[in-house]
Structure formats: structure tokens, C-alpha cells
Amino acid sequence: SKRDINNAVTSMCCQVGCRKNDLSYLC
Fold first, then answer.
1. Residue 2, pLDDT above cutoff 80
2. How far is CA 21 from the centre of its chain?
3. More confident residue, 4 or 27
4. 9 with 24: CB under 8 angstroms?
5. Contacts of 2 (CB under 8 A, 6+ apart)
6. DSSP notation for 1-27
7. pLDDT digits (tens, 9 = 90+) for 13-27
8. Other C-beta atoms within 10 Å of 6: how many?
9. CA geometry: angle at 13 spanning 20 and 11, to 5°?
10. Can you tell me the distance from the alpha carbon of 1 to that of 16, in angstroms, rounded to the nearest whole number?
């Protein structure tokens, strides 16, 4: 589902850090 993909992307951004997506504030 979209929510699962979003959670995976968010956790990846938390670990690696995302410049393209502003998801770091969700960590």
C-alpha cells in the first residue's frame, strides 16, 4: 500500500538522510 511505501521511505530518510524529500522532520 502507499502507506507502507511511505513508511519505508521515511525510515530510510531517517537513517540515511534525505535532501530531496523533507521527511527528516518526521523522525
1. yes
2. 8
3. 4
4. no
5. none
6. -HHHHHHHHHHHHHHH--SSS--GGG-
7. 888 877 766 666 666
8. 12
9. 145
10. 23
CB 5 within 8 A of CB 16: no
* pTM, rounded to two decimals: 0.50
Identity of residue 16? V
* 8 and 18 Cβ atoms separated by less than 8 Å: no
CA dist., res. 11 & res. 27, Å (int): 8
Residue 8 reports pLDDT greater than 80: yes
Cα Rg of the chain, angstroms? 8
